[in-house]
Amino acid sequence: MSDKHDKHEHAPMVDEVSFFEILEVSVRELAIEKGLFSAEDHRRFTEFAETISPAPAARLVARSWLDPEFKKRALADGFKASREVGVDWLKPTGFGTPSDFCDLRVLEDTPKIKHVVVCTLCSCYPRPILGQSPEWYRTPNYRRRLVRWPRQVLAEFGLQLPPDVEVRVEDSNQKCRFMVMPMRPAGTEGWTEDQLAAIVTRDCMIGVALPHPDRKANAKRPLHLAKNPVHH
Amino acid sequence: MSADRTRPPVHVPKETRAAWESPDPTPITLLEKIRSEGRVWEDLAEQYGVTNPDPPWKTSLVGTCEALAEAECLGTLDRRASEDELSENLYQDLPYPERELVSLAHTMIRRGLIDEEELARRMEAVAKRLNS
Description:
The structure holds two protein chains of two kinds. Chain A is mainly α. Chain A has two domains: 16-51, no CATH class; 53-206, Alpha-Beta Complex (Nitrile Hydratase, Chain A), CATH 3.90.330. Chain A is 42% helix and 9% strand. In chain A, strands 1-4 form a two-stranded parallel ribbon. The termini of chain A are far apart. Chain B is mostly helical. Chain B has one domain (26-130). Chain B is 54% helix and 0% strand. Chain B contains six helices and no strands. Chain B has helices at 29-37, 41-48, 58-70, 76-88, 98-110, 116-130. In chain B, α4 (76-88) crosses α5. Chain B is globular and about 40 Å long.
């Protein structure tokens, strides 16, 4: 038994407590002690954050590609269709979270229309179904420039669109969250839902990438600082 | 969100209720020390061979931000606006999510939700506890 245990390879771990970790614990403990929120509030929201990922959204897209009836439901009411892929937008409070409003719109790409999502104001994002937003999505640089020069910004992501394709930028707002339903790529004929879901990456559903039969991960994106200071 | 609605009402300083309030960008000594001396996750992960892209405290930080918003102590929009400003100026050299964390602490101190000295004392105690 002990031999087996000794032979077991442990995953590497960081054996050091950083200032940042100490700061996170300290801020949280003080907030709880002061009664700003309870430990139970914190636990529920943290657990929620640990459960979300882009997997349900990828499932929603893949199923839509295979099932025209489901696709109709997804386009008509993203909130209800989310339940069919295991996402309840009302969790964890019964009213969602303070950052996630319960109205999901699914934007369908066509051969002539490409959608892309942004939040110019802050970083609103359909977290319950798409997980935490990537860092670049939060940056003022992406937020400011996408609405002004969408075609150029998409090109920076490696997505060059023909001139006859209209780019529609959807700005998240206080009431709505958006995700993109990209077109099913050629070369995936006969694929199962699982196979299709594997190529629907987070970036495809934000709208800055297209699904490809050989691509299952998001590309690493460079970050750019904004040239001008932030003023709201 | 908590089922415990019997908690006494929290006194939230009036200034914390204002939306679109720019944070006081004056550096905070304690946070400056963390900014300059703290080891960020990407360095630690590389040194110890860990592939997780996010530090283990990231989801707990999300929990804190959500709980503050839910309690109407610091709304999401207000917090993010403050983070944007501080991230592009004071904490520009920190990666994400470290700068989100330090910006949150900065905003909470400037708005009187927590005090710099008590935070310093708490950090000392937490450091002893986690390193014991």
